[in-house]
Amino acid sequence: MKKLNRRAFSVLLIAAFIVMGLCTYITRYLRDGESWASYFSRLNSLSEGTVTDRNGVLLASFNANDNHYNEDRNTRIANYHVTGDFWNRTGTGILTNFARQLHGYNPVTGMTQTKRISLKLNVDTVLNNKAYAALAGRKGAVGVVNYRTGELICMVSSPAIDPVESDPVAPEGVYINRLLSASFTPGSIFKLVTAAAAIECVPTIWQRSFFCEGEKEISGVLFHCPFEHYTNDFRGALANSCNIAFAQIAISVGQTEMVNHVRAYGFLDSHSLDGIPTAAGSYPLDFVGDPETAWSGIGQSTDLICPYSMLRFVAAIANDGVLVEPKLIDDGQPAEHSLLVNPDTAGIMQELMRNNVIQTYGDNRFPGLEVCGKTGTAEVGDGTDHAWFTGFLKDPDHPYAFIVFVEQGGGGLSVATPIANTVLQAAMRRGTDMEY
Ligand SMILES: [Zn+2]
Description:
Beta-lactamase; five-stranded antiparallel beta sheet
């Protein structure tokens, strides 16, 4: 009996090892099978793929023997966070996220296709090069989307590396795509959210007047403005980016409705750019009281915003409230549409954002363009500021929404608006015979 028990135990033990081994194999097959298959298929000359921009410019290609990128080093670097690399060092790269499609890999059969597979992107390498050059080595990001079609025509994150280098001198944070994969203190661009909430939740907002002498105690806390704005109405408060006005506006909206709007506009969620996940943001959700609600309404407090979420929001405002979901890949399929902003609110926001440029920033910063926007200078807490500028062109032939972010870059107006102008001017000239 004893012997039999011992034998049965041994058999069970062996069976357990087999099951464990099988589980490990299946897990690793599901996780790594694609790279095993692509590795062996490439050795056997079976798999070929190319990635091009919207105009057919080669970004990356591979076949059995070789990997290739664009011939121009500046183009490779400027487009690094779009392309990624064959080592999967940056999470948002096409070569990483679309390896399965590019290899034609089928997880059921474990086979890869032999035909050449091409992925055409919506980005324009010329715009990306312009945007990357304009960031001039600073940490930051630029995104431009056609708000009517959803085509993401510009996606740049800086700094970047040359993907051909196996062991590059990589500055800190170089592999993070700052447009998609991180969240930052928004500062005054967040007043767009507070303004939209106020339009819907504060019926007296158009009759209100806000007096600013540069500082004011609100709910027991002293708020500062960089300038004395004196009497602001709601429109003027946004154009002046008056903290003292917007602290009071946020309190009038109230934390509950602020949270409702922040959530409804998608700032708390991770989104999917053709399957590439973006960073979620944060906003005070637990009760914080009036002073902190005021801080959060002016884009400080614990507010964190993914630049991509703000790009979606302004794109929806520009498109009368309807968000055409951005697409990085031109797969011939129409983009998804959803109502992100109440159309009446969107119309009012368009007018307010146009007024910001006319009244405060100056149309002369954007020659020949009809820009609607909002700047932001976000205090980071260590004495530095993030520079932001977001908005859109009111131009049916060039329906572009944009966001420019320079991490610890300084003032939004002085630092971020010239970058936006450079990229938008280039975008205007694309598709024409003019030089760019
Ligand atoms: Zn003020």
